[in-house]
């Protein structure tokens, strides 16, 4: 899936003002939970419900039409980023989710227009061109051609851009001004962070699916299927952007560097504390729905991370042409290892490598964390002038990395008070933004074909 990122939309954590989020204009009182409807346990339908899997994916939202082609193009965009085949039932489920997302985008665009904050076509075109260049390294024309080649269209991306820009404007005017984070709250969190210096800080990705008592089982089933697809190689960023109902969806579910206490959910805290980088867990039931967590990385608060060290490396390698006899490859490999062991650091490595027909490549700006996991641990234990154990095979060639220099990282100071305040605001904006969108859905006139 193409990930659109015209900017990092800062959905602080606030909500639309009290007037937008309280009762409706007619004065109706909202009662939470299914008890408000006094539903019987034994439901008998007068007319059998339609199978959602055979419903045509088209709708009219307050008069604006969402066509089957709109859904097809967005689905093609998602499938293009996946490494595995989707079964027909999964594609149908994906189509239904895409339709719901397109309805939300339509409502966001309509609300912005109604409040005289309409996103112009010129703004959408400029953002689309920016995304082509910065996000994909393409010209606008090249991105147009790519999208058509995968069965999607430029219009599908532009529609998503328009919805994101519209929603950003609505939140900035109707939500964020009503969010209040006191200096006392920030200072209290700063004190807790200072007291925890040296403890672990986490970078997490989250996919949040909203659920209530009426749809909890269906949402749980959807979450299980998402987990299954992610473990089969699906893109977490793509799924977060498409399915997550948290404001972090726009950045692929990335919550940034946080302490677990900042999650403010004991279930999530307990799960994340047991995770290792790269691990996926969930779905985890929390108030309001289900969460899927990905542990992106970990580090020590206020302490320098050795993996941030910048290395100067020299790669020394010898290749074996196709068809090289096994005995000859073993002999040349042994000579290569012996020559490497006799090298006196990086100063004479080039001459000694050339003498045995080996090649060298230098890289003076590579972080330890950019190396494969197996090499990271080896590099952290090496001194300047030492080499890694040989790696590769006798069919193609073997190589080593020689450490020529290391710039150790500086100790970090942790998040600033401004960053902490911004995060608290984000959390509150996120909660109120969900209520805002829920109100738009409730008041909309939506007709399905």
TrEMBL record:
Keywords: Coiled coil, Isomerase, Rotamase, Signal. Residues 107-134 form a coiled coil. It comes from Erythrobacter westpacificensis. This is Parvulin-like PPIase. Residues 1-27 form the signal peptide. Gene3D superfamilies: 3.10.50.40, Porin chaperone SurA, peptide-binding domain. Residues 199-297 form the PpiC domain. Pfam families: Rotamase, SurA_N_3. GO terms for molecular function: isomerase activity.
